[in-house]
């Protein structure tokens, strides 16, 4: 067998302790983010202190799963062998309806048709036995599926 032709495994996030609750919820197909008990503001990525007021009191809130493309890039270069036949793909900052901005991929649409302010909805992608990735697809694509 010629191992050079084997597609490398999909690279997956290695969550730091402060984001484990986020990934555990995602694996249950729930999109969550931290919200401060002191000032009421939210943030992302997860951290154990509120970046707005430095309080360590916060709770995890479940997002509705909808948002809009805040910014994006279309990746054409293969940075990892897994993506050799997956370029081009879209990496985007999605602003959730609740406010936090999350780095993810836009799927279910030609990268050339992605635009800022495009309405998107979370589309969970089970990437492994312990890992489900919250990706985003145009709201129209989610309705059709
Ligand atoms: Zn705060």
Poorly predicted parts: none
User: Cα-atom Rg, whole angstroms?
Assistant: 17 Å
Percentage of residues in helical conformation: under 10%
Beta-strand portion reads 35-45%
Query: Average pLDDT value?
Result: 94
Shape: globular
Describe this structure in words.
This protein is mainly beta and 145 residues long. The protein has one domain (16-144). It is built from two helices and seven strands, in the order αβββββββα. Strands 5-4-3-6-7 form a five-stranded antiparallel sheet. A hairpin with a 2-residue loop joins β6 (119-128) and β7. The chain is globular. It starts with 19 loop residues before the first helix and ends with a helix. The relative contact order is 0.18. Zinc ion (ZN) binds next to loops.
SSE blueprint and pairings:
Layout: H1 20-27, E1 32-36, E2 58-62, E3 66-75, E4 89-96, E5 101-106, E6 119-128, E7 131-138, H2 139-144
The structure holds zinc ion.
Zinc ion is lined by residues 36, 38-39, 41, 50, 52-53, 55.
């Amino acid at each position: 067998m010629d191992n050079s032709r084997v597609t490398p495994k999909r690279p997956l996030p290695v969550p730091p302790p402060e984001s484990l609750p986020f990934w555990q919820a995602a694996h249950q197909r729930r999109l969550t983010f931290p919200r401060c008990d002191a000032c009421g503001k939210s943030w992302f990525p997860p951290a154990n202190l509120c970046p707005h007021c430095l309080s360590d009191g916060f709770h995890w809130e479940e997002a509705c799963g909808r948002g809009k493309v805040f910014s994006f890039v279309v990746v054409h270069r293969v940075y990892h062998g897994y993506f050799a036949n997956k370029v081009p793909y879209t990496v985007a900052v999605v602003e959730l309806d609740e406010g936090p901005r999350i780095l993810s991929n836009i799927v279910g649409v030609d990268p050339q048709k992605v635009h800022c302010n495009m309405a998107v909805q979370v589309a969970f992608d089970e990437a492994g036995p312990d890992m489900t990735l919250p990706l985003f697809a145009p709201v129209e694509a989610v309705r059709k599926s």
